[in-house]
Amino acid sequence: MEEPAMNLKITTELKDFLLELGYPFNSISGLLDSSVMDKYLNAKWIKNSHVFEMLDKEANDKQLLKCSDVGNFYQFVPPYFAALSSKNGLQAISRLAAYQQLIGPIEMGTFEEGEKLRIHIKYLDKYRKFSRFSLLVDQISLVSLIRAGTNKCVIPVSIGSKYEYGSRINKYLGIEAQNSLDNYLVFRKYDLEQSFVTKNDVMWNFMEPGLEKYIKELNINPPISAVVQNTLFKLIAGGNFQVKDVANKLGISSRTLQRWLQNEGTTFKKQLSIVQKILAQNLLQDRTLNTVEVSFLVGFNSVSSFYKAFKKWTGVTVKEYRLQAILKTNSINAGI
């Protein structure tokens, strides 16, 4: 008999929060339907598209920023609560990546780039894949998480996606977001290594068994291709990213990994190319990196091989791509 009362309490709190944001409640009452409440309470994925379509249409950037403030929602979302209990940002991002699947069908790929950490968000469902609201909230929530944990105004190195961020969002971020074919968020590792004032080992020790239990009960099995991509993000920087390396990381044999990928209609080589393409497109927009450095970071021993692969992936040369990125950035900065 306790659960209905708890449901009602959280429903009321969510409604009050959304009303505070200024949402026209008569047009978005669907936000409190069972699927959304499942997201916050029962840790099930949202399987309908109207929520994201509605938010993309109705929510302005002020509301988007409020929805990205972890102080407004971490009580409802255990993975963020667990992340804030971490010792620092590196551990927080690791925990969030591990338990993000309790929030939705999301995979977070992290890539160590020297003194920086690059984060890529991949949606495994068709509903969020094309949602500006969903991606920007997920990206900005990570910035908010690090700021809340450290109690410092940490400014990311760079952030980008195919969506417009708006002046209000850029002001919050402290940098100009970039227009990109794919999404990325980059932090300095120094900032992520700063101790969290919100660290709480007692709370984490209390929550961890429950989070593990929820994941096991949900029996979530993301596509093996998504798991392979996520693993490759972590391994490429170290230079050991062959099929045997990924299989070892996942605790299975190379043959099993290849068979599972085949069952999804793909191959390890295709998944490697996807990750290398994503990284290459992101890294080439960093003007501090030359092409030799980028080719090495994405796992190529030969620059000429990288040139050929990039032209095959995108249809343009590395030089043309970098020029296009510069022109887009200049146009955005000029307000064109």
From TrEMBL:
Residue intervals of the HTH araC/xylS-type domain: 222-324
UniProt entry keywords in alphabetical sequence: DNA-binding, Transcription, Transcription regulation
SUPFAM superfamilies linked: Homeodomain-like
Stored Pfam families: HTH_18
Name of the featured protein: HTH araC/xylS-type domain-containing protein
Source organism of this protein record: Lactobacillus melliventris
